[in-house]
Design goal:
Elements (H helix, E strand, L loop, with lengths): L2 H6 L4 H31 L2 H33 L6 H11 L3 H12 L4 H10 L2 H11 L1 H11 L1
């Protein structure tokens, strides 16, 4: 959604290509994890448990590597374009997601974020709305996902 806008405004195409490749790698890791967990669930064997654990470990590394890369390079390259009308339009589309999707997203976005990230979110989303979304709809993230990442 945002990459075409960034390409249009001149953000390094090689960086955006790398991001696209990393997104594909995360999707592949997700499929591998799903398959490994399904295999383990069906067999409950120690060997399948160990294989699933290793698959999750590898997938976690793929995601963390991507997020680190995104924070280090893509966010600084994107920030000057946040006021671009096309960027604003794309953000508007994101805001039309269901409360469940937004609650999970904002809970994730704020988890482990630095002061600048938190300030940006609070500047973008009204405080009461953010509180309701993350408290009511971000619970699944906080309960099931955040503990795994820590």
């Amino acid at each position: 959604m945002f990459h075409p806008i960034l390409r249009k405004v001149g953000v390094d195409g090689a960086l955006l290509d790398a991001m696209d490749s990393e997104h594909a790698a995360m999707q592949a890791a997700d499929k591998e994890i799903t398959a490994a967990l399904s295999t383990y669930a069906a067999s409950a064997s120690a060997a399948h448990a160990a294989a699933a654990q290793e698959t999750v470990r590898r997938g976690r590394q793929v995601v963390i590597s991507h997020l680190d890369h995104e924070e280090a390079e893509l966010e600084p390259a994107s920030k000057p374009h946040f006021e671009n009308p096309e960027w604003q339009q794309a953000e508007s589309k994101l805001k039309k997601q269901s409360p469940a999707v937004l609650g999970q997203f904002f809970a994730w976005l704020q988890d482990g974020g630095d002061a600048e990230a938190h300030a940006f979110v609070r500047q973008t989303i009204p405080g009461p709305v953010l509180k309701i979304l993350t408290a009511a709809f971000g619970r699944g993230y906080r309960k099931n996902i955040a503990p795994v990442w820590r």
